[in-house]
Amino acid sequence: MILGDTILETRGLTKQFKGFTAVNGVNLRVCRGSIHALIGPNGAGKTTCFNLLTRFLVPSAGRIVFNGIDITHERPAQIARRGIIRSFQISAVFPHLTALQNVRVGLQRSLGTAYHFWKSERTLAELNDRAMDLLTQVGLTDFADVPTVELAYGRKRALEIATTLAMEPELMLLDEPTQGMGHEDVDRVTALIKKVSNGRTILMVEHNMNVIAGISDTITVLQRGEVLAEGSYADVSKNPLVAEAYMGSADAALTGAHA
């Protein structure tokens, strides 16, 4: 696969909490059109990095550059409008709306009616075709009229990806998209991520090494808030420092390990 230029870069990204350094001088470079995985043991700083990138946390030091523009001090809404859209670790959908209605909420931004929930539903009818197209992309065509609360967990995560796609992301941040899933759902969602990555860039935090091995172009390993290693899965999985960080032994194999 030929990857593009740099879409996202952090330079010396640092976050301190009352003397504790959760992220320490992280230099991250994400190539346009790639699937880039951020992994590491518990407490390595992965989710803190995500929170910094989306400005849910304010960096203590360092810079964040997106498409060549310094976005370090922009508000979360500004960053989202630039096309950095985050899918959260816990499924973030409206449980009592149908799958179709959930996707339409994400699409309302294009109408300029994102907060006009009191408007007639007829004004949203023009979004139905696009919403159905997105549901088809994630394999939920047959569940369009099903209340989300009735969907199986794996399908709720697929719906969340559809609502994320509705926001027209240039860079998708996926926070542990397969957490809590059985093997069948993991395989389905992994295939879905690979499918929707076409023409997009994905940065993901993921614990399942089989998922990482199957779809990632580049892997950045964090340990204690710092970059420990970076490269392809083949390179990272052979790195004794990475094996030691995960398994406590330089001789341990990373394959099949869970962060």
From TrEMBL:
PROSITE patterns: ABC_TRANSPORTER_2 (PS50893)
Keywords assigned by UniProt, alphabetized: ATP-binding, Cell inner membrane, Cell membrane, Membrane, Nucleotide-binding, Transport
SMART domains the UniProt entry points to: AAA (SM00382)
GO cellular component terms, A-Z: plasma membrane
An example Gene Ontology molecular-function term: ATP hydrolysis activity
Classification via Pfam families: ABC_tran (PF00005), BCA_ABC_TP_C (PF12399)
Superkingdom, natural source: Bacteria
Domain ABC transporter span(s) in chain numbering: 8-249
Coiled-coil ranges from the UniProt annotation: none
Name the record gives this protein: Amino acid/amide ABC transporter ATP-binding protein 1, HAAT family
